[in-house]
Known about the structure:
The protein is α+β, with helices and mostly antiparallel strands. Helices cover 21% and strands 23% of the residues. The chain has one domain (5-46, 66-103): HIT family, subunit A, CATH 3.30.428. It starts with a helix and ends in a 5-residue tail after the last strand. The mean pLDDT is 94.
Amino acid sequence: xxxxxxxxxxxxxxxxxxxxxxxxxxxxxxxxxxxxxxxxxxxxxxxxxxxxxxxxxxxxxxxxxxxxxxxxxxxxxxxxxxxxxxxxxxxxxxxxxxxxxxxxxxxx
Length: 108
């Protein structure tokens, strides 16, 4: 989508602190973190939200969750939160599907 900030990040049109990238998704640090560690796991395909998933999108959800687990393991997070916000009423700020990986409160 032309004006989507996450599409611009995944297309490398604007900079981000990228942690991981493969052909399907990208992980980068949240610019306004809500926790000591706050990563966003974002599919490269523009999907507006969980509410907009189609049957052919099932695989991307498992990839998002699996990569979140792998990134948490890399930085030795023992516990963490994974959050999908869905729609404006659910707290979603950017209209592009993304998973929040939050942690680090006890890693000080």
